[in-house]
Design goal:
125 residues, alpha+beta, Trna Endonuclease, Chain: A, domain 1, 33% strand, 5-stranded mixed β-sheet, single chain
Length: 125
Amino acid sequence: MKQHNFDDINLPKVNPNEDLETISNNFFRPLFDVRKFEIRSETLRDKGIDFHIELKKEQSSGDWVYTNFRFAVQLKATESIEANADGSFSIQIYSSNINYLLNFVATSWHSSILKNERPVFYRAY
């Protein structure tokens, strides 16, 4: 088998923003118990919504059912962020993204994840 050092091969470059997106997705999903929530990725030409999350409910019989109570989630990830004077954080979100989330019939959430930090900051719309 021929060994390559990959220096002489034209290959796609790694996009650090895509790595942050993967980190955010990997951090976010385990926050929701799979017995109680169905997380569906929005993968085809998403316009700001990364996930739709549906609530599952246990019936008195012990069976679990899908409720069709859903909400949309938009994730934003950043390498670093400075706290405001009051300790809060601000991230720029374009009004087109807010308008898009507001048009979702169910509740929409915006979640921001700071790389290497545990807290998830969110706002319901």
